[in-house]
Structure formats: C-alpha cells, structure tokens
Design a protein that fits this description.
This protein has a two-stranded antiparallel sheet. It is built from 8 helices and 2 strands, in the order H-H-H-H-E-E-H-H-H-H. It folds into 2 domains: 2-39, no CATH class; 79-182. It is mostly helical. It starts with a helix and ends with a helix. Keywords: Membrane, Transmembrane, Transmembrane helix.
C-alpha cells in the first residue's frame, strides 16, 4: 500500500549515510565501546589521604574528608568543626603564652638584684683603692666577679625576654591560615 503512495524516484533512493566532520568521527571512534563500559566498575567514593593538609577527620563519623567540603558525606558540618578546632587552638596558644610570660617574669625578678650584688664587688675594691696608700692589683681583681655577674645577668635577661617576645609575636601573627599549616591532622 505504501509503495503506491510514493513516486518511483523516491523508491529508488538509498538510505543516506550520515556523515559527521572528521573531528567528530575521530572523537566518536575513540569513545569507549559498550563492551568497555561493561568492564568498568563503579569507583568507590574518593576520600583524601589521612594526615594530608587537605584532609579533616570528621568528628561525627570518624572518616577522613576533604577540608574544602562544607559538609561531610555523613551530613556533619565540617566548617563548624574546623572553626571550633581553630578557636580551641587559639585559646591554647594564649594560655601557653600566659604561662611563658609568667615564667619569664618569675625568672627575671631575681636577676634585677644581681647588679646590686655585683656593685659590692666593683665599688668595694674601688673605695679601697681610693683610700689606700698602696693600691695593689689584687684589689682590682675583685672587679672580675662583679663584671661577670653583671654580664651573666644581662645575657640571661636577654634570653628570657627573647623567648617571651617570640611567643608574643607568634600569638600576634597566629591566624586561620597559620592554624591550617600547623594543625595536627
Ligand atoms: Zn562524617
């Protein structure tokens, strides 16, 4: 019945071969075949390496998750967790600095008295030398422990002050980026 409806020229037409451009055909030719698809198994959900800088251990499920993800795959809010960890780290840092500062103050206090002790070694022989008619070299040898005490006290004071200043500087510059670099993952 259909044969009667079409003219003779149409009946003689062969089905046209659909041609794509060469690039498209090359692309289609390189596409994996259906058989290859059958061999592909679904990959397990990727997770970051534990301990990596880009990873975070989810407090809810204990799985390692990417740090950039707002939520863990279990639904736990990871950004909130990392903020809590940052605040705890900063609090610990302040506490540590307070201990260092208090410790430094305690150590520096006796050092302030040392120059006074040293003065007795310096001024004593000096007075003896001034009022003595025969000043001798041994009188001035008493200066040596005096200067040693003054120098030692100054060095110790400097060392303690530097330790305290380093702690203060680290606290001053401690921001979220520092925390990300130094945190234990
Ligand atoms: Zn989780």
């Amino acid at each position: 019945m259909l044969d009667d409806e079409f003219p003779e020229e149409v009946k003689r037409l062969k089905p046209r071969k659909v041609r794509f451009s060469r690039d498209v055909e090359r692309f289609l030719g390189s596409a994996p075949s259906h058989q290859m698809d059958d061999k592909c198994h679904p990959r397990p959900a990727l997770r970051p390496e534990p301990g990596g800088q880009n990873s975070i251990c989810c407090a809810a499920c204990g799985q390692t998750e990417y740090l950039s993800r707002g939520y863990c795959r279990c639904g736990h809010y990871l950004h909130g967790q990392i903020e809590d960890e940052y605040l705890a780290w900063e609090r610990d840092l302040r506490g540590m600095h307070e201990i260092i500062a208090r410790d430094a103050e305690r150590k520096v206090k006796p050092l302030r008295w040392l120059p006074l002790v040293a003065m007795t070694f310096i001024l004593g022989p000096l007075l003896v030398a001034l009022f003595s008619t025969t000043p001798s070299l041994t009188t001035f040898l008493w200066w040596l422990p005096g200067f040693a005490i003054v120098g030692g006290a100054a060095l110790a004071d400097k060392f303690i002050a530097r330790h305290k200043a380093e702690s203060a500087a680290f606290l001053e510059n401690a921001d979220f980026e520092t925390f990300l670099l130094v945190r234990n993952v």
